[in-house]
Design a protein that fits this description.
- The chain is of the alpha+beta class.
- 35% of the residues lie in helices and 29% in strands.
- It has a single domain, classed as Alpha-Beta Complex (Lambda Exonuclease, Chain A).
- The chain contains six helices and nine strands; from the N terminus they run E-E-E-E-H-H-H-H-E-E-E-H-E-E-H.
- Strands 4, 5, 6, 7, 8 and 9 form a six-stranded mixed sheet that branches. Strands 1-2-3 form a three-stranded antiparallel sheet, with no helix packed on it.
- The radius of gyration is 17 Å and the shape is globular.
């Protein structure tokens, strides 16, 4: 049974520039988010136009989940109490817990200079099964989940590089909404296949020098 996920030694994150640095290697060129992004410039422009709405919500709810998983208390959610209360009150926490070291864990693939951080590696309290979890926040309780398998597959692929032999066969998306939280499950091999396809497209578009 996995009792601890060791940190990748020397891997740090610069939140201001949203870049990763690995001691003895240097700055990592790409992030998982960048690699799997398939939005057009116009779509990105529309998304960024509402950044003042979704960024503070996402940062706050993520921080509350991190506090909850690490300390058992989400802390002060401020104006996002509806999101956080439904999230930490979800029935899944009766049977799942965070693996020590597996909250906001950083990973890197030096072969392609790609890094990323996943939200949580969760372990079933009874049988020890592992799932990799990613939290998403949405503005309405009627919002629908979307396909995040390429992102989840990216984390699994980097996990294979940093922690070979660790068996994580499934991933979940945790969808936090005001007054409602739901879970979607994804099969690990399908996620990796989706990520590898996205990575192939991304790398093919990069300059040769």
């Amino acid at each position: 049974m996995t009792t601890h996920l060791p940190a990748v030694e020397g891997l740090t994150f610069d939140p201001v520039n949203h870049r990763y640095h690995l001691a003895g290697y240097g700055w990592v060129a790409h992030s998982i988010t960048k690699v799997i992004n398939d939005k057009t410039p116009d779509q990105m422009k529309r998304i960024m136009a509402t950044r003042d709405e979704w960024e503070p919500r996402g940062n706050t709810v993520h921080a509350c989940l991190e506090n909850f998983l690490l300390h058992g208390d989400p802390g002060d959610p401020g104006q996002y109490a509806e999101w956080v209360e439904s999230l930490v009150g979800h029935i899944m926490w009766k049977t799942w817990e965070a693996v020590p070291g597996g909250v906001e864990a950083r990973l890197v693939d030096t072969r392609y200079s790609i890094a990323g951080s996943f939200d949580a590696l969760l372990r079933h309290k009874d049988d020890g099964r592992l799932v990799l979890a990613d939290l998403k926040t949405q503005s309405s309780r009627h919002s629908k989940p979307r396909d995040i398998s390429p992102q989840l597959g990216g984390y699994l692929n980097l996990m294979d590089q940093c922690h070979p032999g660790l068996a994580v066969d499934r991933c979940i998306g945790i969808w936090a909404r005001p007054g409602s939280t739901s879970i979607t499950a994804f099969e690990g091999p399908d996620c990796i296949e989706s990520y590898l396809a996205a990575r192939s497209v991304f790398l093919a578009a990069q300059p040769d020098f």
